[in-house]
Amino acid sequence: MSTGAMSTASLDAARGTGPQSRQAFEDRLRAIGAARYHDKHPFHHLLHSGQCSPVQVRAWVINRYYYQSRIPMKDAAFMSRIADPALRRAWRSRIEDHDGTNEHDGGIARWLRLAEAVGLDPAYVASERGIMAGTKFAVDAYVRFVREMPLLDAVASSLTELFAPKIHSQRIEGLLKHYDFANESSLAYFSTRLTQAPKDVAFGLAYVLDHADTLEKQDAAAAALTFKTDVLWSQLDALYSAYVEPGRIPPGGWDGNEGLLT
User: Fold this and answer.
1) pTM for the whole thing?
2) How far is Cα 237 from Cα 36, in angstroms, rounded to an integer?
3) How far is CA 240 from CA 119, 138, 201, 256, in A?
4) What is the CATH number of the domain that holds 141?
């Protein structure tokens, strides 16, 4: 076979820079989450151990709403680029999971039930008036990444779902133990994701492992997952700085009073 006819994977192997084995690459992806996932952020430690004030809990709910509301927009942007109907069919349930259907509420509606349970007017939360610029910058960067980067990178960025069931379980346990607002209804978003996320991540992980068939593609997929962990971490950094330490609420951030239920 001439060099011109060799595949990229064959060229990599010939140079001694071939792709990692499937298992080694999966281990690499999982190691990114073990080191960088936002379950390790100090804000989550405060939240899950019952140390957040009502203002801090509400600020988290308000700002996290922006991320929740953009997930189906991100997935719609991704689907608009897909020519393969089978891949579109596999992906579109993610939009229904968050937007809901005519028969069932989705994740956004469940998040607004949590907002009401913590004492916020759901209409105020959905208005996005109290969301910090730092939250918007991080989340908008994620949507833009999925809209513009190669499909493999876009799918790889979703693989933070590999690590989500653990934090959802910790959150349910911690909130039920420490906060009066926590019950089956108010925490339905997290309990539902315990069954939805494994299906999504099984498909996404298989796609990335199948399509990252060169070292260059594996590096790009790993970088995409790292980027997504940075997006999640950055949101919590903004929240911690504004409402915990040093506690300087930036212009446009929620002031602790607007949008409360009376």
Assistant:
1) 0.92
2) 13
3) 20, 15, 29, 14
4) 1.20.910.10
Residue numbers of the domain that contains 37:
20-241
Instruction: Judge whether 246 lies within some domain.
Output: no
Q: Please, are residues 209 and 123 in contact by the beta-carbon 8 Å criterion?
A: no
C-alpha distance from residue 68 to each of 4, 122, 125, 128, 254 (Å): 47, 14, 12, 12, 18
Structure tokens at 244: 């915990």
Question: Residue 233 and residue 85: Cα distance in Å, rounded?
Answer: 34
From first to last of the 262 residues of the chain, give the pLDDT tens digit.
344 444 545 445 444 579 999 999 999 999 999 999 999 999 999 999 999 999 999 999 999 999 999 999 999 999 999 999 999 999 999 999 999 988 889 999 999 999 999 999 999 999 999 999 999 999 999 999 999 999 999 999 999 999 999 999 999 999 999 999 999 999 999 999 999 888 899 999 999 999 999 999 999 999 999 999 999 999 999 999 999 999 999 999 999 999 999 8
Residue 148 lies in a domain: yes
Contact 243, 56 (CB under 8 A): yes
Q: How far apart are CA 105 and CA 102, in angstroms?
A: 8
Q: How far apart are CA 173 and CA 179, in angstroms?
A: 10
Inside any domain, residue 114: yes
Tokens 């759901």 label which residue? 122
Whether the Cβ atoms of residue 212 and residue 9 lie closer than 8 Å to each other: no
Total residue length of the chain = 262
Does residue 254 lie in a domain region? no
Which of 4, 26, 77, 62 lies closest to 210, judged by CA?
A: 26
Q: How many domains in the chain?
A: 1
Give the H/E segment covering residue 74: helix 54-79
